[in-house]
Task: inverse folding
């Protein structure tokens, strides 16, 4: 097949929107509250997630701001109790209510059916239930965190968490409920990818974003139930005090840690894998190249999902687990670093001989690669037994996982949001401000977290409300950086909302991207496509002469598709 | 079939890859037979607890429970006639349970030998 | 495509096979998560059993194996009857379908009845972790803690066993109640003639997958909790 | 000037620290080179292959198996080297020299109680003699703490109900920071202290100033001697004696004893502790399980001892018991005032 992906009407499944004007889309399909809150349209549910995760991101950011504010002086600006509650709130909100659901909930929901040419996820009502469960869990957790708070850290280690007088139980219940939301989302995505692909959309024609989401969903399905049962046991222990994790009664606190990290280590891959998927899409599009090593990237996602389950014990090297366990977990941890390295090298190689342009999504993506690389390699210090003994539970760990989770995942999320925003809303945002924001975030991020690596090697322990005065300079530097970072995060919030009202129409395929989502209108119709699609070629065929061309030019601020493209679509 | 390369000429109009679930379901008599086998295993399991096997009883009992579960999955849950994907899912479930048990219990079995 | 078949086909599916396959696949995946859910508590049980084998053995011998046996049979029989229900709905025999669903519900409720009886017995014998474990049950001379101490096992570890017993059987009972709810819903749908289209048999089948899984978990609970101990003599009482 | 005050590396207080640093430098060099390679490549690609004009044609490159294998295998080999080196460094934490004296550390919310074998008690300070290896045994009275000394590059979680051990051989005199690294509540960041590594003369001076007062009987004021007082007070020798109903404890420490119901156990701090608190857990083969538990009866207000502190004294004493050293109850060693003297009531809850 030398031609472009063919688009044609097919049999009895042609355009369900008979008689609808081309301007009709999922956003205009009903304006009532009910049409949003009881919708089963995956795109609208995606937007429900967008609004809610943004709100929780704000709460988490506020808590982060308070943490950095406290650490401006060595003696601490808050009281120790307030500080403990603030960093616990930051951890729980950011991990369970933002990082885990953000990409599956927003971009996964919106894109997976469209990118595989389906009309919806396999179980649309279950999808809505996922959102409601997520909101129920989130309100439960947030209520507990805001009314009185929890002082155990997001890791909820017993026996401290079973003795703490704070709201541990409602937070545990919140995490439990949100966990089921995560399971159901994962289930929906796996079934959708297996059963709903468009004709001709074989496994190796799937966009890498879908591969990454598939791997993510597997982790959600297989890891989350263990967390659920762990928090159940924790709740039972708190209520009955029977010694499940209390050594005084014969229990073992390390059992909680094992079961907790059986979920929570793979969970970091729940957070980062979708980001990696987004980067594969953005890098190819803005360098106008086929992805380098499609299969290597696809299988490394699955590889990360599987090997990620074998390494949880590296969180427990100094916790008192057996020596042989420590050896096994350290060795296996070395293997999980390889698939991530493969991805970084493949993305870099994709740029080779490309035609690279630097719109906002690309800047975010490049920022991702830079920050994630640092985050990834610093993980090696922590999976090596000898060095982890010194670095464990210090700011080195904080810096490491913020580089992967914030520098990596949040940058990737912004790359994705900027890349697909024209598709989601049909509007284009400010070129200038979006680029400024990307650069500001990178600079702010480096300023915030590079000093923390030094602090960590010097031995500053995490979760310290007050610290020795010799750490003051680095802490102030870090707090200063965090204001820049926080400012950077406010930018997209502003110009993206602005674009909703004043943005130029983006056109159906502003970036000239391949992929089925760009072959429908922007914003897409409720049924996603006006015709049934057939996929006939590999994804990312940017190097073929008939590849789609960018149709949006900031210079002319025109999103009208060029003539021939239009003919192709309608 | 999982991971099949769909070719354009073949099955172009079919969305997704269908499972090969057979409608040729087993008869009621064969269900009854399996039912009786599992029921007799229940009696076996209970009598094992009176044999005075001590700590080793649990291995025999897990073997019995495993057999009962396999019969249920294979016949009652129609794994016998299910497609490869279902087998893969069952296999994945078992594999992850294996990971959980082996890696976690490694610690509990060896911690007495060497730990800080 | 007949009009009949399109009316049962959701808008986002192309074919009935696709829709049915998705339902089955979804349930199988859900069951895998359930396996890991129960697996988490099983592995916790195993870790402590490795540490405290004697206490777990002694504690297990206190459980009522007769009730466990009867319940196993009840649950297994309900697995059989729900399988008959699938056949009935696949063949369009709606009266049969309703009858088999009712029988299944009845067996499940009988299971819960026996289980409550057992809980009540445990309660009377003070086999409950916490304060009750250290108080003398009515008509007895010793507290359960003393009784186990005399056998040379640590009462704390025995209480750990009972904690697992209540958590595991409690989760199982919770799954039973959800299952009964699902089957009752199928029955209501059947009453409303929902299954007049044989293609909808898949919903009965998917529910049966869940039900068989609950049955399966019970067999493992019997193996780990009820029959794991060494019994000296038969104590047949309900 | 301001910046010049920022330390980049923590002080080194022992040889172990240098070993960790060398490994740290190695990993830094490898990962630094890898990261630099990626950054340079990114910068090169982004400048060299910038879009020149609209509609530029790019070559259709799909990948290279050779490259994939190359950049999977090379990092993997390097990672495995890190792993192996890491194990070597980690193992040093286990090789406690057998002659090293044992310091007990009891963590509680929110302080560290340090107990030297010579009987000196300290809070949040640990004085060590330079070049003298010491074994440190740690336990918590409440929640999990973590005993971390950056200058020794050492850190160990301190768990309730279980002894963990580490060891140091400081080789540089100085004052080093001690941290609690595991969140333990409101006072977590106050659970800090100092490690003082001292030259011989300074150490002796400090120790002589701290030597506990010797009140009654021949004594050296050591931890073991305090344990002996408890041993007598608790009437342990009523049963644990040559003609007693329980195994004699002389020379027991470090030996391997057979257990009732099969198996053996090596007698170490943890086993002695467990046997005092949970006598039924691992019963010595050939002896009846008659010992009552001493849980909740060891704390001694008059001696200002918590249960854990009493336990480490008893352990220190039992460790030193040699042949023929078990005290008998004679007038020479009368039961202290307040002690239970009727053996049948021993271990009963008051």
Result:
């Amino acid at each position: 097949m030398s031609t472009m992906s063919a688009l044609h009407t097919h049999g009895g499944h042609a355009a369900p929107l008979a008689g609808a004007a081309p301007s009709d889309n999922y956003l205009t399909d009903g304006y009532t509250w009910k049409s949003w809150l009881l919708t089963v349209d995956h795109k609208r549910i995606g937007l429900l997630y967008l609004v809610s995760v943004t709100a929780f991101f704000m709460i988490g950011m506020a808590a982060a701001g308070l943490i950095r504010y406290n650490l401006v002086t060595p003696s601490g600006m808050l009281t120790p109790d307030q500080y403990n509650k603030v960093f616990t709130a930051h951890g729980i909100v950011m991990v369970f209510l933002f990082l885990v659901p953000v990409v599956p909930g927003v971009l996964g929901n919106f894109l997976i059916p469209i990118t595989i040419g389906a009309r919806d996820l396999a179980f649309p009502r279950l999808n809505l239930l996922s959102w409601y469960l997520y909101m129920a869990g989130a309100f439960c957790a947030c209520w507990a965190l805001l009314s009185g708070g929890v002082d155990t850290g997001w890791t909820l280690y017993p026996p401290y968490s079973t003795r703490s007088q704070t709201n541990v139980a409602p937070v545990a219940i919140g995490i439990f409920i949100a966990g089921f939301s995560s399971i159901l989302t994962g289930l929906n995505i796996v079934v959708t990818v297996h059963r709903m692909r468009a004709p001709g959309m074989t496994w190796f024609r799937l966009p890498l974003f879908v591969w990454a989401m598939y791997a993510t969903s597997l982790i959600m399905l297989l890891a989350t139930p263990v967390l659920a049962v762990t928090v159940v046991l924790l709740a039972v222990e708190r209520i009955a005090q029977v010694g499940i994790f209390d050594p005084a009664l014969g229990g073992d606190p390390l059992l909680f840690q094992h079961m907790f990290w059986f979920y929570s280590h793979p969970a970091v891959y729940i957070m980062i894998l979708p980001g990696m998927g987004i980067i594969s899409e953005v890098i190819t599009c803005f360098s106008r190249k086929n992805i380098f090593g499609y299969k290597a990237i696809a299988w490394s996602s699955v590889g990360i999902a599987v090997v990620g389950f074998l390494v949880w014990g590296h969180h427990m090297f100094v916790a008192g687990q057996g020596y042989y366990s420590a050896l096994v977990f350290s060795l296996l941890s070395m293997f999980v670093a390889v698939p991530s390295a493969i991805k970084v090298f493949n993305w870099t190689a994709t740029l080779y001989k490309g035609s690279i342009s630097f719109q906002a999504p690309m800047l975010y993506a490049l920022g991702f690669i830079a920050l994630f690389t640092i985050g990834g390699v610093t993980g090696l210090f922590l999976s090596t037994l000898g060095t982890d003994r010194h670095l464990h539970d210090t700011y080195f760990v904080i810096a490491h996982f913020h580089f992967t989770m914030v520098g990596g995942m949040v940058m990737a999320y912004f790359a994705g949001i900027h890349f697909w925003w024209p598709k989601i809303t049909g509007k284009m945002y400010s070129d200038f401000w979006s680029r400024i924001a990307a650069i500001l975030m990178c600079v702010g991020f480096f300023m915030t977290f590079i000093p923390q690596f030094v602090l960590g090697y010097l031995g500053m322990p995490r979760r310290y409300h007050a610290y020795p005065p010799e750490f003051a300079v680095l802490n102030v530097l870090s707090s200063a950086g965090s204001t820049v970072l926080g400012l950077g995060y406010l930018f997209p919030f502003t110009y993206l909302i602005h674009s909703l009202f004043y943005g130029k129409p983006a056109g159906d395929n502003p970036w000239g991207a391949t992929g089925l989502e760009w072959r429908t209108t922007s914003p897409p119709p409720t049924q996603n496509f006006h015709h049934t699609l057939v996929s006939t070629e590999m994804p990312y065929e940017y190097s073929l002469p008939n590849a789609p061309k960018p149709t949006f030019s900031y210079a002319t601020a025109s999103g009208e598709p060029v003539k021939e493209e239009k003919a192709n679509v309608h | 079939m999982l991971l099949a390369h769909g070719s354009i000429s073949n099955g172009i109009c079919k969305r997704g890859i269908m499972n090969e679930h057979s409608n040729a379901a087993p008869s009621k008599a064969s269900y009854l037979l399996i039912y009786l086998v599992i029921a007799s295993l229940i009696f076996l399991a209970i009598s094992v607890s009176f044999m005075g096997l001590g700590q080793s009883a649990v291995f025999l009992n897990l073997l019995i429970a495993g057999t009962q579960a396999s019969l249920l999955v294979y016949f009652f849950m129609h794994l016998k006639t299910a497609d490869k994907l279902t087998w893969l899912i069952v296999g994945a479930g078992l594999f992850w349970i294996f990971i959980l048990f082996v890696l976690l219990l490694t610690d509990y079995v060896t911690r007495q030998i060497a730990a800080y | 495509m007949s009009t009949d078949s399109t009316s049962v086909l959701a808008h986002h599916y192309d074919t009935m096979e696709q829709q049915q396959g998705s339902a089955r696949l979804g349930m199988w995946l859900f069951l895998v998560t359930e396996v890991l859910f129960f697996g988490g508590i099983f592995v916790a049980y195993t870790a402590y059993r490795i540490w405290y084998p004697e206490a777990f053995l002694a504690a297990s011998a206190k459980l009522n194996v007769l009730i466990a046996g009867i319940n196993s049979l009840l649950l297994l029989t309900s697995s059989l009857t729900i399988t008959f229900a699938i056949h009935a709905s696949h063949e369009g025999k709606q009266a049969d379908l309703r009858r088999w669903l009712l029988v299944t519900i009845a067996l499940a409720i009988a299971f819960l009845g026996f289980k409550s009886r057992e809980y009540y017995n445990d309660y009377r014998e003070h086999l409950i972790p916490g304060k009750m474990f250290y108080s003398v049950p009515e008509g007895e001379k010793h507290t359960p803690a003393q009784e186990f101490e005399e056998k040379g096992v640590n009462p704390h570890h025995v209480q750990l066993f009972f904690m697992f017993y209540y958590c595991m059987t409690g989760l199982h009972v919770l799954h039973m109640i959800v299952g009964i709810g699902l089957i009752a819903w199928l029955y209501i749908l059947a009453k409303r003639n929902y299954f007049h289209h044989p293609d909808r048999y898949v919903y009965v089948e998917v529910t049966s997958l869940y039900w068989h899984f609950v049955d399966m978990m019970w067999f493992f609970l019997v193996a780990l909790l009820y029959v794991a101990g060494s019994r000296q003599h038969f104590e047949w009482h309900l | 000037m301001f910046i010049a005050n920022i330390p980049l590396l923590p002080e080194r207080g022992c040889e172990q620290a240098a070993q960790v640093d060398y490994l740290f430098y190695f990993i830094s060099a490898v990962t630094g080179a890898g990261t630099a390679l990626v950054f340079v490549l990114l910068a090169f690609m982004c400048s060299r292959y910038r879009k020149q004009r609209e509609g530029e044609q790019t070559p259709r490159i799909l990948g290279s198996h050779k490259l994939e294998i190359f950049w999977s295998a090379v990092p993997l080999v390097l990672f495995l080297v890190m792993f192996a080196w890491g194990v070597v460094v980690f193992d040093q934490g286990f090789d406690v020299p057998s002659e090293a004296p044992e310091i007990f550390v009891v963590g509680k919310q929110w302080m560290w109680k340090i107990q030297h074998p010579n009987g000196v008690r300290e809070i949040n300070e640990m004085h060590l003699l330079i070049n003298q290896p010491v074994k440190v045994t740690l336990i918590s009275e409440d929640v999990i703490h973590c005993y971390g000394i950056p200058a020794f590059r050492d850190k160990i979680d301190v768990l309730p109900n279980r002894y963990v051990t580490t060891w140091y051989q400081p080789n540089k005199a100085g004052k080093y920071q001690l941290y609690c690294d595991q969140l333990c509540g409101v006072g977590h960041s106050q659970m800090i202290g100092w490690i003082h590594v001292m030259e011989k003369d300074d150490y002796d001076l400090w120790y002589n100033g701290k030597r506990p007062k010797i009140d009654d009987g021949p004594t050296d004021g050591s931890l073991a001697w305090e344990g002996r007082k408890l041993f007598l007070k608790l009437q342990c020798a009523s049963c644990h004696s040559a003609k007693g109903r329980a195994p004699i404890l002389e020379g027991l420490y470090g030996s391997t004893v057979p257990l009732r119901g099969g198996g053996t156990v090596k007698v170490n701090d943890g086993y002695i502790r467990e046997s005092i608190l949970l006598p039924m857990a691992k019963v010595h083969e050939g002896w009846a399980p008659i010992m009552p538990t001493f849980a909740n009866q060891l704390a001694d207000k008059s001696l200002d001892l918590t249960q854990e502190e009493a336990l480490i004294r008893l352990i220190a004493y039992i460790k030193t018991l040699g042949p023929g050293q078990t005290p008998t109850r004679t007038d020479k060693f009368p039961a202290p005032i307040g002690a239970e003297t009727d053996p049948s009531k021993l271990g009963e809850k008051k």
In short: The interface with chain D takes residues 114-116 of chain B (CB under 8 Å). Confidence is low (pLDDT under 50) at residues 1-23 of chain B. Chain B has two domains: 25-81, 83-116. Chain B has three helices and no strands.
